[in-house]
Write a structure and sequence with these properties.
The chain is about 35% helix and about 25% strand. It has about 250 residues and is of the alpha/beta class. The chain has two domains: about 150 residues, Rossmann fold (3-Layer(aba) Sandwich), CATH 3.40.50.720; about 90 residues, Dihydrodipicolinate Reductase, domain 2 (2-Layer Sandwich), CATH 3.30.360.10. The strands form two sheets. Strands 2-1-3-4-5-10 form a six-stranded parallel sheet, sandwiched between helices. The longest helix has 17 residues. The chain is elongated. The chain starts with 15 loop residues before the first strand and ends in a 7-residue tail after the last helix. About 40% of the residues are buried.
């Protein structure tokens, strides 16, 4: 992750954030994380108030990156705002449909766009472990059955979660066979649990990630914003973005 004195070095000039869904659970944590790290939040939008930038404005009042922490249905409107201001976009919603994905793809021809299924760097590590296990399983004397179990609170709408589907896809792409099952349940305390299990004849290997606070996602969102700040237009997932800078041998200190 970037240290405080690296936020400007990740791009060209100071990072200025806009946050859509700033009053929500994740959006408010992103605003807090920016305050903690000395990153200026120059524009916010909530369900009740979406303030357009004035026709004439100082450059310092325009965000260089917008983090959309709202529902997927809001993304086309956020994309229009980014197009008008030239801001990059970090889209945090996991419930994107074809319309929203198309809006993101079109915007990515003009500015950098990150689609973030899961913003936790520990979730990124879980995916790396699953991919490594998948590749090694091709050499094992016994082929395991893969399954995913995910838990969220009762307020989580989509099931299975985008993260659960992503874990299964990571195994399916590199492993000896398709994931046997993705199971979901909605109960318990915030925030979530994702357990990837490999079942052998006489034993089980489980790679688990339990999240108890949204602070990790907020830090991931701010880190992603710093990475695409002033970057060239493209469409990238948060996993691909973390791959790029966490696996680089020459990463700056």
């Amino acid at each position: 992750m970037l240290t405080p004195n690296q936020w400007e070095r990740a791009g060209s000039g100071p990072l200025r954030l806009g946050v859509v869904g700033a009053a929500g659970r994740l959006g408010s944590r992103i605003v807090d994380e920016c305050d903690r790290r000395g990153i200026e939040v120059v524009w916010t939008a909530t369900r009740e108030s979406w303030h357009p930038l004035p026709g004439r404005h100082d450059e310092k009042t325009v965000p260089t990156v917008v983090v959309d922490a709202s529902r997927g249905a809001v993304l086309p409107r956020t994309a229009d705002h980014c197009r008008a201001t030239g801001a990059a976009l970090v889209a945090c919603a996991s419930d994107l449909g074809s319309v929203e994905r198309q809006a993101a793809a079109e915007l990515a021809t003009e500015v950098p766009v990150v689609l973030a299924t899961n913003l936790s760097v520990v979730n990124w590590l879980q995916h790396r472990l699953v991919r490594t296990a998948a590749a090694l399983s091709l050499r094992l004397p016994e082929i395991p059955d893969a399954s995913v179990l995910e838990r969220h609170t009762a307020t989580k709408r989509d099931r299975p979660s985008a993260t659960a589907r992503s874990l299964a896809a990571a195994w399916d792409a590199a492993g000896p066979g398709a994931t046997r099952e993705i199971a979901s349940y909605r109960a318990g305390l915030p925030v979530s649990e994702h357990r990837f299990a490999l079942g052998f004849a006489h034993e089980t290997l489980t790679i688990s990630h339990d999240v108890r606070d949204l602070g990790s996602a907020a830090l991931g969102a701010v880190t992603a914003a710093a990475r695409i700040h002033r970057a060239a237009p493209r469409l990238v997932t948060s996993t691909e973005l973390f791959d790029e800078f966490l696996l680089r041998d020459d990463e700056a200190n």
